[in-house]
Design goal:
alpha/beta; 2-enoyl-CoA Hydratase, Chain A, domain 1; three-stranded mixed beta sheet; 10 helices; about 45% helix
């Protein structure tokens, strides 16, 4: 990307990706996951995940962080490869992709990062204020943060084992201002941050190509689906393009 940032605003339906996750055995060595990552996906995954599984094919708009990390840990222990089919967003990118052994992002697929637990907890005061304003009591808030602090420790361990700089999550947290912002880093940025064994990585060659791709994704995941859509910003570019600002 030649510009400092390209922010593409589109109406991208996550109706097909926000429903309960669908796990399928493709063959003895391959699992496929499509949908949103939810807590019950841990048990669904464990029921199908055997020592023979070598590859996970994913199409996901992200989901529950505390569900994604245990699945990613299992993938990491067994050196499972990942293939992104269309889109891998937020928790899918943050954990499934990072934990995987060999990684593929084929043509017209997008890898989109969004924050993380550790950088989020750095703004604990604001989170406590928001939870209090929403009616949460002290015990509920304490329980919430205990779970997230445990998750943050697992997050750091996952990245440390993968040899990936936690700056990846900090950068994506800084550049994505709200729940509808996502960062699409190019290959060079991922490699600088320690993401290894990316054997295939397609990335739009221009701002125009990114626009075309987003439109295709919008069409693919909104076709014949419900009208439950989310306004979404995709921010593209290398780290230096915005850290220099």
């Amino acid at each position: 990307m030649r510009g400092l940032f390209l922010v593409l605003i589109c109406l991208l339906s996550f109706s097909s990706l926000s429903c309960a996750g669908d796990w399928k055995v493709i063959d003895r060595h391959t699992l496929r996951f499509e949908g949103s990552i939810k807590i019950d996906d841990i048990s669904k995954f464990n029921a199908l995940f055997t020592e023979d599984i070598k590859t996970l094919i994913v199409t996901s708009g992200g989901g529950d962080v505390l569900a994604a990390i245990p699945i990613a840990e299992s993938m990491q222990r067994q050196h499972v490869d990942i293939v992104v089919d269309g889109i891998c967003v937020s928790s899918c990118a943050n954990y499934f992709f990072i934990a995987a052994n060999k990684k593929k992002v084929p043509q017209e697929s997008l890898l989109l990062f969004h924050g993380g637990i550790t950088p989020m907890l750095e703004n604990k005061g604001k989170m406590v204020e928001e939870m209090t304003n929403a009616g949460a009591g002290p015990e509920q808030i304490e329980s919430y943060f205990k779970a997230w602090q445990d998750g943050a420790a697992k997050e750091r361990a996952l990245y440390n084992k993968a040899g990936v700089d936690m700056a990846l999550l900090h950068y994506s947290h800084r550049v994505t201002n709200d729940d509808s912002d996502f960062w699409a880093p190019p290959l060079a940025t991922l490699e600088k941050l320690g993401v290894k064994d990316i054997t295939e990585f397609w990335y739009p060659a221009s701002d125009e190509a990114m626009t075309v791709l987003v439109e295709k994704i919008h069409h693919k995941y909104s076709k014949n689906k419900s009208s439950n859509s989310t306004r979404m910003s995709i921010i593209s570019g290398d780290i230096e393009q915005w850290t220099a600002q």
